[in-house]
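Please describe our next protein:
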Amino acid sequence: MKISIISDIHDNIEKLSLALPLCAKADLTLCCGDLCSPFVIRKLGTGLTHPVHIVFGNNDGDRFRLASNAGKFPHLQLHGEYAELSLDERLIAINHYDNIARGLAKGSGFDVVCFGHNHTYEVTTIGKTLLINPGEIYGGLSGHSTFAIYDTKTNEVQRIEL
């Protein structure tokens, strides 16, 4: 199974529009937060047809409208601040914060932990856990618009730069 992992969109619809056709080639998408505005949910809902699992970030202020918009798209699942998924025999945790992700990777028995927040692309192994930060779609903080594709069969991560 191929899983696209995105984070830190920060309302950058132009960059998100470039990422979505590439994400659509995956079997599902994980979003690690900081969509920011509710219209980003609409863009995800119309731009992707496969399952999309979303957690909130610290800049997702209008959670009521984000949730209302997500409810219009049956393939979007808004989990709150944390999600734990079993996908293709891999136990995967998703949250926004790097410090929480590192703690989860150190002791929770997850195969993969995905996070965002610091806008820095990272793939690290802690024990048996693969820790993935796809970087930022936004591109304004790091200077790079990136996301990741994770392959559950090979346990490999591909960096995609927009």
